[in-house]
Amino acid sequence: MNFQACTCIAFSPVKPDGIIRTTVSNTDSAPVTAHQKIDAKFMPLIAAGYSDGTVRVFDINKAEMILKMHPHAVAVTAISFSSDGRMVITGGSEGLIAVSSPTTGMTVRVISDHKGAPITNIDVSVFQEQELSVSAPQLWLATSADRRVSVWSADWSKDFCELVDWLTFPAPAFTPDGTVIAKQDQKALYSQLPPSIAKFSPEESDIIVYVGYGMEKCIQFYSLSERKVLRTQALTHWPTCMDLAQSTALVSLGANERVMKLLDYYEGSFQDFVGHSDSINFVKFSPDSKYLLTVSHSEIFIWEVQV
């Protein structure tokens, strides 16, 4: 029997008309998440990606697995429900993205635009996009380890999905420690470079916030409407993880140096917090932004956030 490890998980939207962020990142050792605020009588479905390429859907209310599908031939590295809950979007270590139905188990679409680089995160917009010139109101994005971000417009009720933007962020031809990167070694070095992470901004509907290995340590704020980076904010460490608060203008970042950084979204002012004994590989705000979950190799901290 092959070893099967759960690599990433996501919660379904609680209600069809209640659009919430449901992405959950994976860590090197185990997936970590924070519960959404939900009705006490109902728990959302959970979709979990595994190292054998399978995705399993669990009904917490019944305490059982209700569906198993196999959209990937390699490990699933990122997963999210669509904002309406109709689809499960998954990314694999080979760079393929699969869109599957959590009710039938059928994979209805395979996207190969990122093929060759592992998918590092998938994010779904919390907004119903009407202001941008896109063909459908639901936006989602995928990021790969080679610093590419694809942005998609979708209407899953009509089986519609269209690429609306493609972002590529440059990086030097050497690792943070100065080692020259040979072209044939790029795939092997993905795990040694700071991860590429992109998320829709809850503060500005057309902004994508990006961190990753590049020419300098910074956060980049990319405008979908103007199709360019509008501003950057310098950082002191290469981020290993990132989350944006839903109710306050805060950004949380973790680093290998065991530092958790809280940054003001608009002003760029920040404060560093040290407490973990190992690299921080996951940060997540609670839905009301009053608490922050941070995770290292063997520690889980819950911070109270006071603004």
Automatic annotation (TrEMBL):
Q: Which UniProt keywords apply?
A: Repeat, WD repeat
PROSITE patterns linked to this entry: WD_REPEATS_2 (PS50082), WD_REPEATS_REGION (PS50294)
Cite the WDR90 4th beta-propeller domain residue spans from the record. Answer: 45-306
Describe where the WD repeats fall, as residue ranges on this chain.
Answer: 273-307
Q: Which domain of life is it from?
A: Eukaryota
Which Gene3D superfamilies does the record cross-reference, listed alphabetically? YVTN repeat-like/Quinoprotein amine dehydrogenase
Q: Does the keyword Repeat apply?
A: yes
Question: Does the record's keyword annotation contain 4Fe-4S?
Answer: no
Query: What's the protein here called?
Result: WDR90 4th beta-propeller domain-containing protein
The record lists the organism as Mytilus galloprovincialis (Mediterranean mussel)
Organism placement in taxonomy: Eukaryota, Metazoa, Spiralia, Lophotrochozoa, Mollusca
